[in-house]
Write a structure and sequence with these properties.
Length: about 400
């Protein structure tokens, strides 16, 4: 299974094509719209989320509520395009006409300058329109297809916020998956710890007031994955490595860790590795889950726990210094519409890119042409693992 996205931030639409989904899987636009609307929420979001209402149009690969086995095509229209048609339209522009809102001043922390150097663009709008985090809406659409598949296979996933601007939520190991999902949805900062929720909101409001931005840490949990998904045989088949790649590819993400992550460097091995236990009812398990559900690039059967670090958004309303690529003069960087904090929304994006990698690994390991056969194969495998 793989996906491809196309489209620019202020272009006509975002397009997602997902290939490799088994035939006969229940799927409707409602499954995808629920995820897209979740991505738009969160304290600290900018005015763009008030303009757009992301709803998907499934254009191929689904008939009467079931997948066909052919590529699934999805479109999310950009409502704001009507104000940008002369700037972002695909038709040639009259040579005597000046294009509005060209960008010659690269913004620190963005792809603007590096992309302009790579592709030879003098108007860096050609870079920032595609490198914008608006593209993550297309990735969430792909991940929503994967999440739908996982739900039907008894695999549940949730994303939430662990930290914003140094304000850290306490872990809540006592919460069930259903409670984590419910509490994350109920919180405007997607935090499971109500004691720090207001502090996070205050920090976001202060950043906005200061014309600044703040980052944080997102966390994703996955339950219901059987042991042995992924592989130790080749580096590019290790599932934790694939998930790390997917998380790192999200705009503004700068680091990934599983389980206790970097804390493992500070502990002796006896306080890191998870002891193996066994019961007739459940089979093999681990006494703890310090390694976040992975050993040797494969799932251990324990919940997958992965965190991603998001830097502050680099578009600032008190912009940093930059240099005009045409005049080489020093200027303050240009300002585009932006959020003061997108960590709550990023938790939703992270949840969906993780879901896609998990679904992809499952389809590589089990029959993947017909969804009913996949369900039977997963159930049989779970029983084999339990009785191993």
């Amino acid at each position: 299974m793989r996906y491809l996205t196309a489209g620019e931030s202020h272009g006509k639409q975002l397009t997602t094509i997902v290939e490799g989904v088994p035939a006969g899987m229940p799927l409707t636009s409602a499954n995808i719209n629920a995820s897209l609307l979740r991505r738009q929420k969160g304290h600290g979001r900018g005015k763009r989320m008030q303009i757009e209402k992301d709803l998907v149009d499934i254009c191929g690969g689904v008939r009467h509520g079931y997948t066909l086995g052919s590529p699934i095509a999805m479109v999310v229209k950009n409502d704001d395009f009507k104000h940008w048609e002369d700037i972002m339209g695909e038709d040639p522009v009259d040579v005597d006409k000046e294009i509005r809102r060209t960008v010659s001043r690269p913004r620190p922390g963005h792809a603007d300058l590096n992309g302009a150097i790579k592709y030879g663009h003098r108007d860096m709008r050609n870079i920032l329109e595609r490198s914008s985090a608006r593209e993550t809406a297309a990735r969430v659409a792909a991940g929503a297809v994967a999440k739908t598949m996982l739900n039907h296979l008894g695999i549940n996933i949730v994303g939430f916020v662990h930290e914003i601007a140094g304000i850290t939520a306490q872990d809540k190991p006592e919460l069930s998956m259903e409670e984590k999902i419910e509490q994350s949805e109920a919180s405007s900062v997607r935090c499971l710890d109500k004691t720090v929720e207001q502090q996070m909101k205050d920090a976001i409001d202060q950043a906005k007031k200061d014309g600044d931005s703040i980052g944080g840490i997102c966390e994703v949990h996955v339950e219901g994955m059987p042991a042995g998904i992924g592989s130790y045989v080749h580096y590019d088949r290790k599932l934790d490595a694939r998930i790390a790649f997917a998380v790192q590819s999200i705009n503004a993400f700068k680091g990934v860790e599983f389980g206790i992550g970097f804390e493992a460097s500070r502990r002796p091995g006896s306080k890191v590795h998870d002891e193996i236990i066994w019961s007739e009812e459940e089979g093999f398990k681990r006494r703890t889950n310090n390694l976040g559900g992975f050993e040797g690039g494969m799932t251990s059967g324990m919940p997958i726990v992965v965190k991603g670090v998001m830097k502050p958004i680099p578009t600032l309303y008190k912009p940093l210094q930059s240099v005009d690529i045409e005049t080489k003069e020093v200027f303050n960087a240009s300002i585009e519409r932006s959020d003061s904090c997108a960590v709550p929304a990023a938790a939703v994006v992270m949840e969906h890119v993780v879901a896609f990698e998990i679904a992809r690994a499952i389809l590589e390991q089990f029959p993947n042409d017909q969804f009913e056969k996949l369900q039977v194969a997963i159930d049989q495998y779970r029983e084999e693992v339990r009785c191993f």
